[in-house]
Amino acid sequence: MVFNTVIYDIQPLSGESGMAFFAESADNEESVTSNTEEQILKWILTHRSLGKFLVSQFFEVPSTVKAYLGLTDPFVESGRKPGDIDLLLIDPAKPDRSIAFEVKRVKAVATDDEVSRVNGAEKIRKGVIQVNKYQSLGFHQTYLMVIVLNDARTKRTPNVALRKANSSNVQRVFGIPWNEPLHADVGIVYVEITQFTGRAIAQTGSFGVCIDKRASMLEQASDFTTKVKKLSSQPNRHHINFN
């Protein structure tokens, strides 16, 4: 698996003659794994560069795309299966190419240099069931997105930027969708967010995206595309831009 990755370290301007990037930290900020699916997805999309980076994996011009979170109307009725659409990406100039995502979060925590704890992997199987139902709604493309929140703060390898909660427990996560009855037209994308020092994830970390399987490009029905157009043209409908 190949991830397109951004590694970042934000340091305040203190007036000192020099500053160290990607260095050890005595901070003990909250673990990245404390974020819920909704919280981490919103954080990614509203981040000044990471949201655009993610969207650029699916659209050539991400600045024109609108992102909608937790949608029901006009595609599904509230309280009916498959439930909310976790993420919908629409380019208003190309409403016939909408992309829907079912999102599942997995927490991976390094306990030492060899072993990592993993929580939430069982949710991926539920995600396969849900995304198969998304596929039947009629979007141009449909993906299962697995977000791996990687807490590697206990690692003590010399290069902090290469630290990762990485063991056989974590590796199994990447095989689950393939071993479940995933619809042939559904794609798989992994997002890995790694916290490798005690600093907050918003200050120091890495963000990687791997499209493990491209979703089939299906032709949207004209009445379905009309719904997409109507949604993207509503100025009062909350969405996220990537200008």
Task: Tell me what the structure shows.
- The protein has one domain (32-241).
- 21% of the residues lie in helices and 27% in strands.
- The chain contains six helices and nine strands, in the order E-H-H-E-E-E-E-H-E-H-H-E-E-H-E.
- It has helices spanning 37-46, 50-55, 122-135, 168-173, 176-179, 222-232; strands at 4-9, 66-71, 85-90, 99-110, 116-119, 141-151, 187-195, 204-213, 240-241.
- Strands 1, 2, 3, 4, 5, 6, 7, 8 and 9 form a nine-stranded mixed sheet that branches.
- The model has no long low-confidence stretch (mean pLDDT 89).
Provide the β-strand percentage band: 25-35%
Query: What would the average pLDDT be, to the nearest integer?
Result: 89
Structural class: alpha+beta
Q: What coarse outline follows from CA principal-axis ratios?
A: globular
Helical stretch count?
Answer: 6
β-strand number: 9
User: Main β-sheet: number of strands, strand sense, barrel status?
Assistant: 9 strands, mixed
Whole-number tally of structural domains: 1
| DSSP helix fraction | 10-25%
Give me the Rg, rounded: 19 Å
> What string gives the helices and strands in order?
EHHEEEEHEHHEEHE
What order do the helices and strands come in, and which of them pair?
Elements: E1 4-9, H1 37-46, H2 50-55, E2 66-71, E3 85-90, E4 99-110, E5 116-119, H3 122-135, E6 141-151, H4 168-173, H5 176-179, E7 187-195, E8 204-213, H6 222-232, E9 240-241
Give a short summary of the structure:
With 243 residues, this protein is of the alpha+beta class.
